[in-house]
Fold this protein.
Amino acid sequence: MNILVTGNLPAAVLSLLQQEHTVEFHAENRPMERSRLMEMVGDKEGLLCMITDRIDDDLLRHAPRLQAIANMAVGYDNIDVEAASRKGIPVSNTPGVLTDATADLAFALILAVARRLVEGDHMTREGGFRFWAPMYFLGHEVSRKTLGIIGLGRIGKAVARRARGFDMKVFYHTRTKLSPEQEKELGATYCDMDILLSRADFVSLHVPLTPDTHHLVGARELAMMRTSAYLINTSRGPVVDEKALLAALEKGTIAGAGLDVYEQEPDLTPGFKNLDNVVLLPHIGSATVETRTRMALKAVENLLAGLRGDRPPDCLNWENVHAGAAGKA
Ligand code: NAP
């Protein structure tokens, strides 16, 4: 079968696909142009895609032979899964293998904003470090503070586990409350989102991007946060109303933010780069050699299963695919 891989995977992982199929791949370290993707997907049975590829109804119409789609990410807001289901195409993602790397990055952002790491690095490089003094370059302590986690799934839980090492008090909010045993094991207490926002010293977002979570944190929510609190976003940019966040940071109604993701990636809302109390990362939550290799392997495993007609291990729409196929028959 013919497969399109829209990113550059490790050669050893790519060869697993090449052993069984004819593979065309995008070898550059930048996203594939939409027009090229549309053109290349036309004769393919398999698609291994990235979060930077928009897989919508329009693209699927250009890909009449497609039999399986494997996204190399846990988040799949770039894919219209319902449209794929209607066409009988199984879609998969890569959950679990990137949990620790992303949780580490969320914690790195917590430490970076609270202890002014990036600001301190810039100042030191520029020759600004001239003395030690008791009240010089003070940040805020992370240990024993209150962490509010919105979205306590795989990554949210991994952040909660890290917080235990800092003796933090952890509150969480999700639609589904954990069992008392799970809460006890994690040391996390459920609370209403508004209460979480008003109590937390750090608010860390770990929800998927869905119509429900779009602008989950906007002007109203930011106004509920403490003036000493920090917002950490390693989920998806549109979960936060970026203009409202910028206004809150400029007015000082919250203390700072650590961002890995943006509403209009890779563009930044003008204004962020002028602020010292924001740490800005280029969407690198899962960007470690180990994790990206595991993600690539998982995506390949899912794609190969889908092309064999088997249920991909991380299929998101198997039941709907079959319902769609039954509907067509
Ligand atoms: P997950 O295990 O599915 O966890 C998502 C959590 O969000 C669940 O606890 C879910 O619980 C909760 N949730 C969903 N909708 C909600 C809502 N409307 N209000 C409150 N809570 C809600 O996913 P994960 O593996 O932890 O990944 C989370 C997200 O992180 C991904 O979807 C992806 O977008 C992002 N991510 C980013 C990077 C990066 O590079 N920065 C890397 C990996 C992942 P309920 O359904 O019970 O509410």
Remarks:
- Residues 289-308 form the longest helix (20 residues).
- The domain at 2-96+289-328 is CATH 3.40.50.720 (Rossmann fold).
